[in-house]
Amino acid sequence: MGIQIAPSILSADFANLERDILAVSDADWLHVDVMDGHFVPNLTLGLPVVERIAQVSPLPIDAHLMIEDPDRWAPRYAEIGAASVTFHLEAARDPRTIAKDLRSLGARASCAIKPGTPVEDVLPLLDTLDMVLVMTVEPGFGGQAFMADMMPKLTALRAAADAAGRDLWLQADGGVARDTIATVVAAGGDVLVAGSAVYGAEDRGAEIGALRALAQAVHHR
Ligand code: DX5
Ligand code: ZN
Fold first, then answer.
1. In angstroms, what is the span from residue 31 Cα to ligand 2's centroid?
2. What number of helices (H) and strands (E) belong to the chain?
3. Nearby residues of 161 by Cβ (< 8 Å), 6 or more positions away
4. Alpha-carbon gap, residue 193 to 200, rounded angstroms
């Protein structure tokens, strides 16, 4: 796959959510941040809301679960229509089983690591995963500053995937914008989440196009 753009509705207007979902239909995925107020110090939305979003969204749903007990909950998001489900390694008891469950339900299986989690912790799981999400901010809030010091994680993951002959998707989430997206892609990222960059723009479609062009200009694979 080439470059894919995943706008995060965390920065959308929740009173006009369908309008704001349709406004980003030029992208590849709709990134939906599920937060439980325990794994992260913020609370967003859960299963019934994501189910409705999946029904009205023209884009497939990329569910990012910042919640405790993903062993129990992650498969439920696949069942209600998320095409890709990302759980956090730090919260998982049995990540291999979660990934296997997601795949058996027809979803792409993805695992996220927080800034403080070493990349080595996720490397042994790559054969069970379709994507790894490298957080480039502390999860919980949109609009934070991009952490360039996470780039070696992407580089290591890309090298490991290439060595295994795998088309592993590598997602970066947090602070991705016009001034940082080339850095992410140069390090090996190919699925770019952007919340405030897209929804903070007057013309969301044009911003998606601009981000995609900047990313494609440095994409070599
Ligand atoms: C943060 C979320 C992100 C957030 C990114 O915990 O996982 O998806 O929406 O927002 P920006 O792009 O504004 O950093
Ligand atoms: Zn996210």
1. 7
2. 8, 8
3. 126, 167, 168, 170
4. 14
